[in-house]
Structure formats: structure tokens, C-alpha cells
């Protein structure tokens, strides 16, 4: 990765199946770090950019796109995110919290038939995270949170059979920066687990800032 030499910040990504509480935890960690004076940026994929918007329209019309077209949209969205936000913010020494990143592509587009390792190779343009928190909870818990908690219907990415496969692919990927999070507990319990993984990274981060 070409930008690694100038990298001073931290990239922490939140991964897992839908309804496991990632967004809530991004929010809580972001406030925790801000309150302690750290330069934090919270972001997410799909992004709010043009490719991200196109991806959201795809939720409802998934069969209109081939799986290759779908994969290319996620990659294009990430390429733009890396160039416009992630690389510059890392070079400026910020702590980035990203709700979904390339492990989601490996797991979700892997569930559509791609080899997950091939997908990871196609993501080599994207910096590796310092930490990937993999949120894991029984699938029914996540689906209940979506349908009753949020009052939403499942979108095409959230159908139960394919989510089982997505969870299995997430669990099968081995990378040194992946840490599992038991997301079945309370918001406070999960936040504690998140902090247990994040706080050991902060002293090194602070030293890099001086
Ligand atoms: P999600 O985090 O649910 O976004 P939002 O709540 O803002 O709509 O992500 C949307 C869906 O996109 C989710 O079901 C997972 C899927 N997804 C992929 O299939 N591949 C990817 O690379 C990413 C980032 C997400």
C-alpha cells in the first residue's frame, strides 16, 4: 500500500451482519474518543457519494444488476472513499471509525458466489484496518432488531438464507486485525468489549502524534 509510509492515524472498522448494533457502537465510541480529545471521524460504507447512492437504489432492484456489476459498484464507492477521505485523514493523524469496509464486500458479495479471497485481492487499493471489530449475534436477534426495532422490512441484502451464509463467510476470514465482538449483550456490555480492543491502540496512537 503506497500511503502506508505517511500513515499516522488509526483505521477502526465495524463489520458484521445487519442488525448487530454496529452503528450504535460507532456512535458511542466516537463520543467516547471525542470527549477525551482525540481527532475522530465517523464514516460509513456504502458512502453518501454518487456510487453509494446508486448502491442504495440497488437494495430494491437487486436483480437488475449482475453480481459483477454489484461488486464493481461497491469497489468504486470504496475507491472514492479511500482517495477522498480515508487516506487524507489517516495522513493527518485522525482516528477513523468506519461502519462497514472491505470484509463486508468479501462476506456479502462472497455470498453471491465470488471467492471471498479473490474479493479481498480486488480490495488491495484500500488500506488495511488497524482493527476490524466483527459483530456477531444469533441471526434472529439481528433480524428482530431490524423488523421490530426499526420498523423496517428486510431489504434484498438482508434475506435470511443469504445472511446465514454472510455470517459464515465473515467467521471464516482470518486476518490478524480481526477481533470478534459478542453483540448479543446490552449496548453497555458491547461498548465495554469495544473499548477493551480500542484502548490498547491509543497510547501508540498518542505517541505518533508528538
Ligand atoms: P448498511 O450498513 O445496512 O447501510 P445502511 O443502513 O446505511 O443502509 O449496508 C447496506 C447493505 O449493503 C448491507 O446489507 C450490507 C451491504 N453491503 C454489501 O453487500 N457489500 C459491501 O461492500 C458493503 C459495504 C455493504
Can I get a quick summary?
The protein has helices spanning 22-35, 50-58, 67-91, 102-109, 116-122, 139-149, 160-172, 187-198, 202-209, and strands at residues 10-16, 40-44, 95-99, 131-136, 178-182. With 210 residues, the chain is of the alpha/beta class.
Strand order of the largest sheet: 2-3-1-4-5
Shape: globular
Q: Which strand-content bin applies to the residues?
A: 5-15%
Low-pLDDT residue intervals, each spanning 5 or more residues: none
Radius of gyration over all CA atoms, rounded: 17 Å
Instruction: Kindly name the structural category.
Output: alpha/beta
Classified in CATH, the superfamily of the domain at 10-43 and 94-201 is P-loop containing nucleotide triphosphate hydrolases
Q: Assign a percent range to the helix content.
A: 40-55%
- Report the biggest beta sheet as strand number plus sense, adding barrel if it closes: 5 strands, parallel
Q: Give the CA-CA distance, first to last residue.
A: 24 Å
Any ligands, ions or cofactors bound here, and which?
thymidine-5'-diphosphate
Number of helices: 9
- Using the coordinates above, name the CATH class of the domain at 10-43 and 94-201: Alpha Beta
SSE topology string: EHEHHEHHEHHEHH
CATH architecture of the domain at 10-43 and 94-201: 3-Layer(aba) Sandwich
What is the CATH topology descriptor of the domain at 10-43 and 94-201?
Rossmann fold
Q: What's the β-strand tally?
A: 5
* Average of per-residue pLDDT values: 91
Describe what you observe in this structure.
The protein is of the alpha/beta class and 210 residues long. It has a domain at 10-43 and 94-201: P-loop containing nucleotide triphosphate hydrolases (Rossmann fold, 3-Layer(aba) Sandwich), CATH 3.40.50.300. Helices cover 51% and strands 13% of the residues. It has nine helices and five strands; from the N terminus they run βαβααβααβααβαα. The chain has helices at residues 22-35, 50-58, 67-91, 102-109, 116-122, 139-149, 160-172, 187-198, 202-209; strands at 10-16, 40-44, 95-99, 131-136, 178-182. It has a five-stranded parallel β-sheet with strand order 2-3-1-4-5, sandwiched between helices. The longest helix has 25 residues, at 67-91. The chain is globular. Residues 18, 45-46, 74, 99-100, 104-105, 108-109, 157-158 line the site of thymidine-5'-diphosphate.
Amino acid at each position: 500500500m503506497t500511503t502506508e509510509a505517511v500513515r499516522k492515524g488509526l483505521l477502526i472498522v465495524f463489520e458484521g451482519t445487519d442488525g448487530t448494533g454496529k452503528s450504535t457502537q460507532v456512535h458511542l465510541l466516537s463520543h467516547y474518543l471525542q470527549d477525551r480529545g482525540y481527532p475522530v471521524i465517523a464514516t460509513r460504507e456504502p458512502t453518501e457519494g454518487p456510487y453509494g447512492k446508486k448502491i442504495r437504489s440497488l437494495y430494491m432492484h437487486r436483480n437488475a444488476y449482475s453480481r459483477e456489476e454489484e461488486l464493481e459498484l461497491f469497489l468504486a464507492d470504496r475507491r472514492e472513499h479511500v482517495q477522498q477521505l480515508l487516506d487524507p485523514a489517516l495522513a493527518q493523524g485522525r482516528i477513523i471509525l468506519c461502519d462497514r469496509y472491505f470484509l463486508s464486500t468479501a462476506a456479502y458479495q462472497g455470498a453471491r458466489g465470488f471467492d471471498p479471497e479473490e474479493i479481498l485481492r480486488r480490495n488491495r487499493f484500500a488500506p488495511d484496518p488497524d482493527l476490524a471489530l466483527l459483530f456477531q449475534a444469533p441471526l434472529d436477534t439481528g433480524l428482530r432488531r431490524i423488523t421490530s426495532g426499526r420498523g423496517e422490512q428486510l431489504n434484498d441484502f438482508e434475506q435470511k438464507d443469504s445472511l446465514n451464509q454472510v455470517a459464515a463467510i465473515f467467521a471464516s476470514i482470518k486476518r490478524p486485525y480481526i477481533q470478534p465482538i459478542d453483540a448479543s449483550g446490552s449496548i453497555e456490555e458491547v461498548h465495554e468489549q469495544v473499548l477493551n480492543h480500542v484502548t490498547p491502540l491509543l497510547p501508540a496512537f498518542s505517541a505518533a502524534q508528538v
